[in-house]
Design brief:
Elements (H helix, E strand, L loop, with lengths): L3 H11 L7 H14 L3 E7 L9 E6 L3 H19 L5 E3 L6 E5 L3 E6 L1 H7 L1 H4 L21 H7 L2
Parallel strand pairs: 2-5
Antiparallel strand pairs: 1-2, 3-4, 4-5
Length: 153
């Protein structure tokens, strides 16, 4: 015979998590990237500038292994905490520039050379940047001089 707490516990595990807001999901992605030692993490609020998404999460990884680890951590955190899965992924095999498109937010993880070359954050430089220093989970975040200058504009 099954106990009621086992039934309740079992149903809670199978119940899908309610989807978090796009801002909260962007923060979840940024925290997951930070947990895997990504650098230059930033979130741009592009709602007023583009119609296809609300936020860009941009981070830098030292090498293709770190890109893969960051992407895996983000996908797991979004599934568990945000209740979302990516609609589309790109570049996860080569590890130079990986993209996770969740619809309401898009995650970009670059190796340093690719990030410096594309300077994606400059394309929407008038977009507000979420101040991660005011959010939980970013005490260890590290920034290059170029990105630090963007964060203080």
């Amino acid at each position: 015979m099954t106990r009621i707490n086992e039934i309740v516990a079992g149903s809670a595990e199978s119940t899908p998590k309610e989807e978090a807001s796009s801002r909260e999901c962007a923060l979840i992605a940024a925290r997951a990237a930070c947990s895997k030692k990504a650098t230059d993490i930033m979130i741009q609020d592009v709602r007023e500038l583009v119609s296809v998404t609300d936020y860009f999460v941009i981070a830098t990884a030292a090498n293709n292994r770190q890109v893969a680890a960051i992407i895996d951590a983000i996908e797991e955190a979004e599934r568990k905490e945000g209740g979302v899965k990516p609609l589309h992924t790109e570049g996860t095999n080569d590890g130079i520039w990986a993209l996770l498109d969740y619809g309401s937010f898009v995650v970009h993880v670059f190796q340093p050379e690719a990030r410096d070359f594309y300077q994606l954050e400059e394309l929407w430089n008038e977009a507000p940047i979420i101040d991660l220093s005011l959010e939980d989970g970013f005490a260890d975040a590290q920034y290059s001089d170029r990105i630090a200058a963007l964060l203080t504009r």
